[in-house]
Design brief:
Blueprint (H helix, E strand, L loop, with lengths): L29 H9 L4 H8 L4 E2 H7 L5 H13 L3 E6 L5 E6 L1 H4 L2 H27 L7
Antiparallel strand pairs: 1-3, 2-3
InterPro entries: HTH_ArsR_DNA-bd_dom, HTH_HxlR, WH-like_DNA-bd_sf, WH_DNA-bd_sf
Pfam family, one: HxlR
Keywords: DNA-binding, Transcription, Transcription regulation
Length: 142
């Protein structure tokens, strides 16, 4: 058998180096790392609130009344395990716990800002598209 030569041309902006040039999700792919960092229900909202500074567990519970204490604990533990949040336990009774973003957690700010902007644009485009489709008489559904 002869050698296979790579004929695929990579978009340098989307995959500027080999770690991003994969054919399946890889743990070391920078895009997968970034997506994993913000994955999970409530995670982006917790990160958003922690961007404003350290917060206590009770304060976070107050900010998110629909978030159960169990799920909040799980999300904060996951963020800690990912190296995105540091925990400080203060002495006393009851023990007070403060959660604060690490430098890695703070690095997610640009991603959250971009995700928000992209979501707004998608909402605008899909709403415009739906409005245009509704005005088109006789449009066949696929």
């Amino acid at each position: 058998m002869g050698h296979q030569t790579e004929t695929h041309v990579w978009d340098e902006e989307l995959a500027p180096e080999p770690r991003g040039r994969t054919w399946r999700p890889e743990a070391g792919c920078p895009v997968e790392v970034a997506l994993a960092a913000v994955s999970g229900r409530w995670t982006t909202l917790l990160l958003r609130e922690l961007m404003g500074g350290p917060r206590g567990f009770t304060e976070l519970r107050t900010l998110f009344p629909d978030l159960s204490a169990k799920v909040l604990s799980e999300r904060l533990r996951t963020l800690r395990e990912r190296g995105l949040v540091a925990v400080e336990r203060r002495r006393g009774f009851p023990v007070r716990t403060r959660y604060e973003l690490t430098r890695a957690g703070e690095a997610l700010r640009v991603l959250l800002v971009e995700l928000y902007a992209t979501g707004e644009e998608l909402l605008r485009l899909t709403t415009a598209s739906e409005t245009r489709d509704e005005r088109s008489p006789g449009r066949l559904e696929a």
